[in-house]
Amino acid sequence: ESKFTLVAGIHVYDHLLNPLKDLEELRKKVDLGAHLAIVVHNEKSSLRRLLKSKWPPFCLQHPQLYNPNTLRVMLGNAGWKVISSGRSTNWYHLKHFVRMGADILGFSPEVARAIPNFEVPIKLGNMISISQAI
Q1: Which residue, 82, 65, 63, is CA-closest to 73?
Q2: Which residue stretches of the chain are H helix?
Q3: For a 10 Å CB count at each end of the chain, is N or C smaller?
Q4: What integer is the mean pLDDT of 22-38?
Q5: How many whole angstroms separate alpha carbon 36 and alpha carbon 53?
Q6: Number of other CB atoms surrounding residue 38 within 10 Å
Q7: Strands, E, within the chain: which ranges?
Q8: Tell me: the pLDDT tens digits for 44-80?
Q9: Nearest 5°: CA angle at 82, between 123 and 33?
Q10: Using CA atoms, how far apart are residues 37 and 116, in angstroms rounded to an integer?
Q11: How far apart are CA 100 and CA 32, in angstroms?
């Protein structure tokens, strides 16, 4: 009987076959004013333009791809109002990049042990949208 006040879907809605129906059903399970946070791939991102057809989200596992406008319209049709939208930030350990680079260059990934363990923020081709149930 209790209703949710906050729902988060991180890289979920790109994988659903009928996200509009799922968002409508979700809307029924929350109170007016509840919040929904969604992160999805942005098919209008700079990374997508740069990589063209080699952009990783172009695959069978992503039957849905969005841009800020298509996401806003879909959410609106499902009973949600977008209150903020923007590029999301991915955080990677610097050691990850060193290991990956060493592997590509044919060096032992053990060289990463000499690197401090801190994270690097990178804005990739993803967007985050915060919506409110209306």
Answers
A1: 82
A2: 19-28, 46-51, 68-77, 94-105
A3: N
A4: 96
A5: 31
A6: 27
A7: 4-10, 30-41, 80-87, 90-93, 119-122, 126-133
A8: 999 999 999 999 999 999 999 999 999 999 999 999 9
A9: 125
A10: 32
A11: 46
With tokens 């007016």, the residue in question is: 32
Residue percentage of the chain with pLDDT more than 90? 84
Asked if residue 126 has pLDDT above 70, the reply is yes
CA 72/CA 80 separation, integer angstroms: 9
Look up residue 51 and give its two tokens: 């990589």
Q: Exposed (0-12), middle (13-18) or buried (19+): which is 37, by Cβ within 10 Å?
A: middle
CA 5, CA 107: separation in Å to the nearest integer? 50
Q: Distance between CA atoms of 15 and 70, rounded to whole angstroms? A: 15
